[in-house]
Structure formats: structure tokens, C-alpha cells
Amino acid sequence: MKLHELMIAKGSRKKRKRLGRGEGSGGGKTAGRGTKGQNARSGGGVPLGFEGGQMPLQRRIPKRGFKNIFRKQYQIINIKDLRRFKSGEIVDRDTLLKAGLLKRAKATKLLGEGDVSYPLTVMVSKVSQTAREKIESAGGKVEVVSK
Questions:
Q1: How far apart are CA 100 and CA 122, in angstroms?
Q2: What confidence tier does 131 reach under pLDDT thresholds 50, 70, 90?
Q3: pTM
Q4: Which of 44, 52, 93, 144 has the highest local Cβ count within 10 Å?
């Protein structure tokens, strides 16, 4: 078989239906929209979730609770994640980003899961009491920085 002998499969390509091109075309006059009504008009149709004038579901359901839009979210790092750093190294947001422990430069919180046996200087936004104790008992230092 040669390239010039290749043929497309029968029925694989179908012409699109061209609407509103005269009565003889089969898709003329109302162009498949029916007669009158909101959907027959240009720019017509109803918005997503519209229920014909009935109170929409998202407005019928009771709203509960409170969502604080100013809530500060922390990316969590455990002590066991700090094992990849060398003794005496300074661990801050930039080094955590380079190491792939943070997705983006957000506020970070250090938790105490796992343990470390060598001193590290850790600079994070928040730190749990157990994490602070573990790092300081290994001879390290924890600094709380803003953001």
C-alpha cells in the first residue's frame, strides 16, 4: 500500500447541518428551534440551574455555618520530612520549595511527627510544641517568621 492509495473510512466524515439557509435545504425557516418561545428567540435560552420560575435548588437549600474568607491556611511539614537536610543547615521557605516539600510559597507549620538527631535551624510560620522540643533537644533552633 502506498500513501496515495490511502482512503478515509466510509461514513467517518459527515457534513455539518447548515441551518437557516432557506426552505429547500430542510433546515430553513425556524432552523430547528421550533416556533415561538424563549428558546426560539435570538440570544434566548435559560441560565444554568433555571427551574422555570420555581425557586432554584441552590436557593431552596438552607445555608449553615460560617466561612471565613480571611482564614489563613498552612502547608504542613513534619519533622520526618526534614531528614533530607544536612546537619546545621538553615531550613526556610525557599529551601523547602527547592526540596519539593512545599507546593507554593505559603505559610508553613511544622508538626512533630518523626524525629531528628542532628541540629537544624528551622524558620517557619508556626510550630507545634512537640516539634519545637524535638528540634531543640537535638541542638537545633526554631524561628517563627511572618507569612
A1: 16
A2: very high
A3: 0.56
A4: 93
Identity of the residue numbered 99: A
d(CA 54, CA 52): 6
Measured distance CA(120)–CA(54) in Å, rounded:
63
Question: End-to-end alpha-carbon separation of the chain, Å?
Answer: 66
Quick: pLDDT tens for 42-86. 999 999 989 999 999 999 999 899 989 999 889 999 999 998 998
Q: Calculate the average pLDDT of the chain.
A: 91
Ordered by where they begin, the domains of the chain are 79-144 (3.100.10.10)
Which residue shows C-alpha cell 466510509? 10
| DSSP per-residue codes, the chain | --GGG--PPTTS--PPP--SS-GGGSS-TTTTS-SSSGGGSTT----TT--TTSPPHHHHSPP-S---TTPPP-EEEEGGGGGGSPTT-EE-HHHHHHHTS-SSS--EEEE-SS---S--EEEESEE-HHHHHHHHHTT-EEEE---
List, edge to edge, every strand of the sheet that includes 75-78: 75-78, 108-111, 126-127
Please answer whether residues 136 and 118 qualify as being in contact, where contact means their C-beta atoms are separated by less than 8 angstroms: no
